């Protein structure tokens, strides 16, 4: 080995020796020789918490439903003729007996007059036949007339009586046909789009109609629920009427309150669901035929611990919630969820009133982990808004 290489090796050994002596005297920095006391494992986990409250909670079952008109009728003509008058507006609210249209009544008035004239003629013939019968009956006593003539006259009287009865039936039918020329609404509801215009010739055999009248108040909602809920629904119906609330499709805005009318008499085997029908008064018209709604059937109201639904987690052994102890450490408590609605859940066992549970920030938590409570996003936003307003002042 040459002299320069020996010199460099010696210099390196000297540097290492000097560094070791320095570290021995000054101490090795804690960041190198030992783990930091403030490692992520020991640092408090920021979470959002909530308090368990004891309150009344509605037990309900929610199903998708469709609004259906309680009654719907298509107004059709029952006689042939010209539409002389349309007496309604499209979208108009009508009552029972309101005139909707007028068919030309003149041909049917003429038939009625003809039937009445036939009856008057037969009544006159009957009167004369009765007078003849009376004369023949007196003459046969004195043997001025035969018994056969009396019998013939009695048959003629009976014939005219039958003719008058026939005439009366013709008159009644003519009255009915004439009445059909005035079309009235058979129910209270709202008219749709007009299907026939004034001046058209219509026939009783036409497949279409004049207009569709739909009853909007009351109105019904047909909705479905899984068949597993059928026993508890039947049990809840014993001795009382169940309330049903209709919400929009997003299940956020309540549209109307009603009652359960009936449960269908069979289960749909294809879907394993049962159909139910609810009735709503719908006086404000917020429900409309064909509208999709979320129907909420109220079974009962229970009182118990209620927590935000976000506080509940799922594990291999079921649902649980992290409960915060006095030392700010969390421990998982197994719970049983009775029902959930609108972001809240009713709990049976595992939690007590006044306990603090973790609502957000679970992903960093372990049993025994220490936590620090942070403001909820809404609270933080309110604080920022307040500070901004103060700064502007």
How would you explain this protein's 3D organization?
With 393 residues, the protein is of the alpha+beta class. It has 4 domains: 3-33, no CATH class; 45-54 and 304-392, Beta Barrel (conserved putative lor/sdh protein from methanococcus maripaludis s2 fold), CATH 2.40.420; 60-70 and 219-302, Beta Barrel (Elongation Factor Tu (Ef-tu), domain 3); 72-212, RNA polymerase II/Efflux pump adaptor protein, barrel-sandwich hybrid domain (OB fold (Dihydrolipoamide Acetyltransferase, E2P), Beta Barrel). Helices cover 31% and strands 35% of the residues. The protein contains 6 helices and 22 strands. It has helices at 3-26, 30-33, 106-141, 147-179, 230-236, 377-392; strands at 45-51, 53-69, 72-75, 81-86, 93-94, 99-103, 182-184, 189-191, 201-202, 211-214, 219-226, 243-247, 254-268, 273-280, 292-308, 313-315, 318-324, 330-334, 337-341, 344-347, 356-360, 371-373. The strands form 4 sheets. Strands 1, 16, 17, 18, 21 and 22 form a 6-stranded mixed beta sheet that branches. A 6-stranded antiparallel β-barrel has the order 2-11-14-13-12-15. It is elongated, with a radius of gyration of 46 Å. The model is unreliable at 1-7, 20-41 and 378-393 (pLDDT under 50).
Give the key terms.
393 residues, alpha+beta, conserved putative lor/sdh protein from methanococcus maripaludis s2 fold, Elongation Factor Tu (Ef-tu), domain 3, 6-stranded mixed beta sheet, 31% helix, disordered N terminus
